[in-house]
Amino acid sequence: MRNALPLAGETVIFTGTPKSSEAAELVKKYGGIPVSIPLIEVGEIQKKADQQKLQQAMKADWLIFTSQSAVAAFRAKMLRFNVTADTYNGKVAAVGTRTAAALDRLGFAVSFIPSVFSADVFVKQFNPKKSERLHVVFLKGSLAGSLIREELPFHVSEWTVYETKSATSEIDKLSRFILHKNQVSVLFASPSAVEVFSSRIAPKTTWFGFTVCAIGHVTERALLKVGAPVHVKPETYTLVELVHELAKRKGEFK
């Protein structure tokens, strides 16, 4: 029989900073204790060429956003240079419904979302009318890979609009939680968080003694690559679905 509160007594740690409280509230609904300990910090990159790059982006045929952080950084630049979404006549692609919702709030209509929220699936499914003159701008973070630029069959301009770096102050805090709590689940929402955990925390805690959760197959691959087990991965790559899947797993064992 499944427990009505499958996460009762469980400390559920978000290693990123959720853009909304929905996933944390769901943890509480299932009886767990949500804790946010971001292992990475994200901040907009500002450069002298930003205004020119923004003008060029607003003339592109397609804009591609793979994260809410990219949308937030792009929004900051639009506000700084007094540019509005209604001046853009091209199309917009988003990896994930949350990213699409952030773009919608900014005033952009999203024309394409892949069925699975990852860059490798995106490049397989993104198939607009091909043209040698088709200009695509990919709004990215400092640690984003080159897959989109290399795999799409037309000219792609990359614009690095935000920086991702480790949140050093949080590392000891997370180590203590894992070492001193009996029931802990750690939610990884990006390969970047996996990298920080692997290099700075796992040498102290190992990867065992807590439940390892991956938001999707790219993060799962990053975990497996460093020798970590993956106990939970949802079919739909969102934090809310990850919490649902975690609760389902925990409920089956209580």
Task: Give a verbal description of the structure.
α1 packs parallel to α10 and α3 packs parallel to α4. The protein has 254 residues and is α/β, with parallel strands linked by helices. The model has no long low-confidence stretch (mean pLDDT 91). It has a six-stranded mixed β-sheet. The chain has a four-stranded parallel β-sheet with strand order 2-1-9-10, sandwiched between helices. The radius of gyration is 19 Å and the shape is elongated. β1, α1 and β2 form a beta-alpha-beta unit. The protein has ten helices and ten strands. The longest helix has 15 residues.
**Mean of residue pLDDT values:** 91
The level of helicity is 25-40%
Structural class: alpha/beta
Distance between the termini: 8 Å
Biggest β-sheet: count, sense, barrel?
A: 6 strands, mixed
Task: Write down the overall geometry.
Answer: elongated
For the largest beta sheet, what order do the strands appear in spatially?
A: 3-8-7-4-5-6
Number of strands: 10
Radius of gyration: 19 Å
Count, helices: 10
DSSP strand content: 15-25%
Which regions contain 5 or more consecutive residues with pLDDT less than 50?
none
**SSE string, helices as H and strands as E:** EHEEHEHEHEHEHEHEHEHH
